[in-house]
Protein: Protein FrlC
Organism: Agrococcus baldri
Amino acid sequence: MLTIDSVTGTNFAYHRVPLTRWLDDMVALERRELELWGIAQHVDLLELTVPAVRKLKGELDARGLRVACVTPEQIMYPVNFASADPAIIARTQRMFTNAAELCAELGGDLVFLTPGWGWEGEPVQDAQRRAAAQLHDIAEHAAGLGLRCVLEALQRHESNLGVGIEQLGAVLDAADAPALGVALDTVAMATSGEGIDDYFSRFGDRVWHVHLVDGSPGGHRAWGDGELPLVDYLTALRAVGYEGLLTPELFGTPYVYDPTAAHAANLASIRQAFERVDAGIAGIR
């Protein structure tokens, strides 16, 4: 059953402080399962080296922490699964292959993917086909390492081919990879006018991961800084039997200036929401 212990520690909003500061904070916040955002200052997935992997593993082991999910940066970086440029595809495959191999070395479970984007004005189906072919290959590689991958829908300003359940499902089906499931992001879901039940009606037990984040309805905000119904979401996730991890994806200002306080306050809000769910108090953010 989902509880506060289902909430991961993450380095979203920690990219301007050393990785060791993030890890120490996660220990203090009693997080043991982590989602590692692949931002270069913490882990360079484009130029991953054996010494870097060993150092990271040592830092984790020394603190009793485990990376459960590796999430490469794939919006701001020059990578795109749907690109028609062979050089960009080669870079994308290299980075995500490295991500899968890092995840396996760290004893993780999931590699986090997004579908990329196609040219505005070209048929969406063309970009979806390109993305599906590349996603299939990465998912198959990950499966060979004993991992699974999860595919997240995006907001319209981020993509034109993975927006909402219909487009996400089209890419997922075309990729045709048993090791590829779905990541439900509450902001991407809300901005598409969809809900928890919609995701589970379409994808069922292929929803393997959740990004639990507030918004208005967009943004990557701490709970209480947006308008989304956290208690309702947690109640619905329990009702459908979801038992995976929940990652708070805080991003941008003001969180980057004091990520310690932001993550502590956000975790406290989620803890309070779970208490309300346990008490049967619905309809309260």
